[in-house]
Amino acid sequence: xxxxxxxxxxxxxxxxxxxxxxxxxxxxxxxxxxxxxxxxxxxxxxxxxxxxxxxxxxxxxxxxxxxxxxxxxxxxxxxxxxxxxxxxxxxxxxxxxxxxxxxxxxxxxxxxxxxxxxxxxxxxxxxxxxxxxxxxxxxxxxxxxxxxxxxxxxxxxxxxxxxxxxxxxxxxxxxxxxxxxxxxxxxxxxxxxxxxxxxxxxxxxxxxxxxxxxxxxxxxxxxxxxxxxxxxxxxxxxxxxxxxxxxxxxxxxxxxxxxxxxxxxxxxxxxxxxxxxxxxxxxxxxxxxxxxxxxxxxxxxxxxxxxxxxxxxxxxxxxxxxxxxxxxxxxxxxxxxxxx
Length: 340
Known about the structure:
The protein is an alpha/beta fold. The protein has helices spanning 10-30, 43-49, 112-123, 144-158, 177-185, 230-233, 239-244, 271-283, 312-322; strands at residues 61-64, 83-87, 95-101, 128-133, 165-175, 209-213, 258-263, 288-293. The radius of gyration is 20 Å and the shape is globular.
């Protein structure tokens, strides 16, 4: 199956552009006003962000990961159909792509805050974003959501030419439970099965880099909170299963580079989860960068509502440029004569 390149409807592009312009106008106008004291988003606002996006938000092309039915599917409803929503970054020539995995405790998806808004951030940097809708509890448990994560990277790599994507510059970015999913894909990949009847299964599901924002990256006692991932594993998982889904235990020299972000104030996923995983990366000789900010609760996304976190997306952008996944801006030519 082939797809036309960047098959994104004009209305979606236009609405996204209008949204960006409106945001810039609001930000510009706000500078003329006295700065308000920073406020933590209300519980109602956070709850609203976990619901599916409203119909008037910009949407991209939707592609099912398994058009003929996903493995382990228990029905044929929308929640049984893992999929990707594609937001083109319009990079010049073959460019980087990122599979985005919103969080939500494996029971729901923070789709707007940790999906659409992340895709927009990536688009502005010339990266095509593929927002993943993976299967959720209580309808699905291990290993179904993880199968969706592995398949998402294979799908993007198989269709790389259809979207002008560089097949060796495909990353993954996960938040909270989505950070666990990205951590699993980044430590449990394979080169594909050349004998598979499905051509997508013949390509590698190894991401070329992974970004984890306050992700569950270890289940070590004393670090992970009791009951962590119970929605994925059930109430009484065996120690063998806990070890299998603890990304920190599966880091090797072949693990792709990681960028890790967390906060000391995170009560949902302790920052030591990030620190422990970082230590495993360094021991294995894997390129990695970690930032643990002093302040900030769980679920901060890009830190829009927390001024103390404003710098972390800048650090991420710098890391992406440092490793060649997005280019540095072209230097403006000098118009002034040299003076001696």
